[in-house]
Amino acid sequence: MAWKPKSHASLLLWLVLSLHILSFMTAVYAKSGRPITDAEIRMKKDECYADVESGLWGPACKSSMIAKENCALQCLSPQCYELVYESDPLEEGEKDIIRSQEYKFCMYR
């Protein structure tokens, strides 16, 4: 059977789209249907800080207070961290109220 570039490209495109749709559906079905509460967020964030302190997130996450915060935010919600902070992580001394609110909004969705 001869190799047909067009059919392989179509197959690859179909595979990529299928995986993208599957990952989206998994994220949608993973939500409980009710918004997360402030108490649940605090409890999970405390668990994330404990994981960071124990070294589960690697030594870079323990290198400074802001590194701990970035790692805890990523642990708390990888999707929200990627959306809000990944392209421009928090820096030492930075207080970013707007992005903090965006992150909270993302968590509540």
Explained architecture:
By secondary structure, the chain is an all-alpha fold. It has two domains: 1-30; 33-108, no CATH class. It is built from five helices and no strands. α2 (38-54) crosses α3 (65-76), α3 (65-76) crosses α4 and α4 runs antiparallel to α5.
Short structural description:
This protein is mainly α and 109 residues long. The chain contains 5 helices and no strands. The chain has 2 domains: 30 residues; 76 residues, no CATH class.
Number of domains: 2
Instruction: Encode the helix/strand succession as letters.
Output: HHHHH
Strand content bin: under 5%
Helix count from the secondary structure assignment: 5
Radius of gyration: 19 Å
Residues in helix, %: 55-70%
Number of strands: 0
Low-confidence stretches: 24-30
Assign the structural class, choosing from mainly alpha, mainly beta, alpha/beta, alpha+beta, or little secondary structure.
mainly alpha
